[in-house]
Design a protein that fits this description.
Bound molecules: NADP nicotinamide-adenine-dinucleotide phosphate
Distance between the termini: 36 Å
CATH architecture: 3-Layer(aba) Sandwich
Shape: globular
Radius of gyration: 17 Å
Structural class: alpha/beta
Largest sheet: 7 strands, parallel
CATH topology: Rossmann fold
Number of strands: 7
CATH class: Alpha Beta
Number of domains: 1
Strand order of the largest sheet: 3-2-1-4-5-6-7
Strand content: 5-15%
Number of helices: 9
Length: 248
């Protein structure tokens, strides 16, 4: 028996990186896994086959998390295909970095829509099912940058800080319905998103981390298993940092 046996999860942005690692760990722990991708169609299709090998029910959907109507349609389709949703992981995210002086309105809007509005879209669509079930776990992927800010990432930091405020508000609104809402704040995790950084920047980050290494997507996925499972039943409204002690 896995830690998530009998549960159905919806994970956004699982074609690569942290979302992909969460989908794989969830399947390994026995969850049925619905997941989304947007531009990485081939990677999304390959993941569906990989997840199916765990003997669970799985399906990938091409869906833009920043689109309100698309999120509603997605959740409706998942309910038709899987019967229910027990865990929602809002993971889809992007960066469009630049100093504020040079940041365009488009850079701002894209990051806020894909990182923050997506969390509203999916959560709003999924809570009807959670309320019916009188249970649900919402896990939002924020960032240490949302806690402390970062030069050159004012759009990203704002979107991630917004996620924290949203997460806590949902925990307060829906706790009485046994719906939990938590956030994970990863630090510096090796994925395609951080793969674009040059070696000096990476060394600069890892030198300041007490555990002296970058995190792996699996480190974040382990935390997502915990927050999705019943062993975190009394935890809501929290931000768990998976950052090697970076902000300590
Ligand atoms: P990544 O490797 O670039 O993966 C991002 C995922 O999001 C991809 O699967 C991508 O799918 C999906 N996505 C992007 N826009 C989307 C949209 N509009 N609708 C649906 N899916 C969309 O990034 P990552 O490093 O794994 O990051 C995952 C999450 O962790 C993000 O929220 C990020 O902000 C957060 N995070 C990452 C780090 C880090 O160090 N890596 C640190 C803190 C927080 P397609 O490619 O198919 O479009």
């Amino acid at each position: 028996m896995g830690l998530l046996t009998g549960k159905t999860a919806l994970v956004t942005g699982a074609s690569k990186g942290i979302g992909r690692a969460i989908a794989l760990k969830y399947a390994q722990e026995g969850a049925n896994v619905a997941f989304t991708y947007l531009s990485s169609v081939e990677k999304g299709q390959l993941l569906e086959a990989e997840l199916a090998a765990f003997g669970i029910k799985t399906k990938g959907y091409r869906s833009d998390a920043s689109n309100f109507k698309a999120a509603e349609e997605l959740v409706n389709n998942v309910i038709v295909d899987f019967g229910t949703i027990d865990i929602l992981v809002n993971n889809a995210g992007i960066t469009k970095d630049g100093l504020l002086m040079r940041m365009s309105e488009e850079q701002w809007d894209d990051v806020i829509n894909i990182n923050l509005k997506s969390v509203f879209n999916l959560t709003k669509a999924a809570i009807k099912t959670f309320m019916k079930n009188k249970a649900g776990s919402i896990i939002n992927i924020t960032s240490v940058v949302g806690l402390r800010g970062n030069a050159g990432q004012s759009n990203y930091a704002a979107s991630k800080a917004g996620i924290i405020g949203f997460t806590k508000s949902v925990a307060l609104e829906l706790g009485s319905r046994n719906i939990r809402s938590n956030a994970i704040a990863p630090g510096f995790i090796e994925t395609e998103m951080t793969g674009e950084l040059n070696a000096d920047v990476v060394k600069g980050w890892t030198d300041t981390i007490p555990l002296k290494r970058a995190g792996k997507a699996e480190d974040v996925a382990d935390c997502a298993v915990f927050l999705g499972a019943d062993m975190s039943a009394y935890i809501t409204g929290q931000v768990l940092q998976v950052d090697g002690g970076m902000l300590t």
